[in-house]
Amino acid sequence: MTPRPLIVRLRNWVGDVILGVPALRLLQDHGYALQLVGAGWAPALLKGQGWPVHVRPGANGRLRERVAQLRALRDEARRADPGFDARENAMVLPTSFSSALEMRLAGLKAVGYAQEARGLLLRRSEPITYGGHALVSYWALACRLLRQPLVAPPPTIGLATHPEDQRAADEVLAAHHVRQGFVVICPFAGGLFEAQQKTWPDFPAFTQALLRCGRDVVACPGPGEDAIIRDHHPGVKLLAGVKLGAYGGLLRRAALVVSNDTGPAHLAAAVGAPVLSVLGPTKPEQWAPWGPTVEVVRRWPEWPTVDEVIARVESQLAK
User: Fold this and answer.
1) How are the residues of the chain apportioned to helix, strand and coil, as percentages rounded to the nearest 5?
2) Going by C-beta distance under 8 Å and a sequence separation of 6 or more, which residues neighbour residue 204?
3) Residue 34 sits in a domain of what CATH number?
4) pLDDT at 60
5) Which candidate in 8, 160, 178, 289 could, as Cys together with 48 as Cys, close a disulfide (CB 3.0–4.6 Å)?
6) Is the Cα torsion angle 313, 314, 318, 319 positive or negative in sign?
7) In whole angstroms, what is the distance from residue 112 CA to residue 134 CA?
8) What does pTM read for this prediction?
9) How confident is the model at residue 197 (pLDDT cuts 50, 70, 90)?
10) What pLDDT is stored for residue 226 in this prediction?
């Protein structure tokens, strides 16, 4: 059977890429050979899926460099599939004008969201539904590319961890003498949500209460975040420098992950770890981690109390 290459531009945040995995798997199941284009961390994140992931020239990369990359992928696809140029052959998950422009300049016939006057740049523009979950939005776009009725997305993401990454995660846990039944905390949160902070202000006090439960508490800070753990979360086992792929394998071993609205919460849910998601302004119906192992704690415009979250933790760990 002649392969049907499909070039897909991924989104720019870890959580968004994870939420797009079911849509990508749907396209693969319908016979598309995916060629993904994303941020520098995307190949490590998706390594277990086995999809080719090409690192897009970054923010400092010029437009012509990004277009040249897409043209090279188009040329490769045409060699594999003589009918590549005769059909819709790309999907754009970001909503930016630039992402659609790059596809058009590369000669690709892309399907994407009808945002920012992109209709003239895309082969087909589809409406985006605001207010629903982001995973459902990405899933719906894939269904529209396939021209099939919108069906319910899968209840789990099922992100695969590459065996090498799982071994690396287990070695890190062993080297730091982390006991089984450990809890991972993610007291980090990048950016704002509707101009409001996404970081639970009582997370440090919660961590001290959590440590009194007698379990090992672990944190895997990203670049520049080590000091947050050292200064505000004493007693936590700081596992510095864990790479993204191995991080997924480590989360897979956790008894519970307690997190702000941040990428690792989506990663934990995607690999099937129990997740307690402490949310403030973030809308859970749109951005909560996806899956049956997720429990959300939220009562905005106030933040949950330490006692509330500890009670949820004890309930989760007693299961």
Assistant:
1) 40, 15, 45
2) 187, 232, 233
3) 3.40.50.2000
4) 67
5) 160
6) negative
7) 14
8) 0.96
9) confident
10) 95
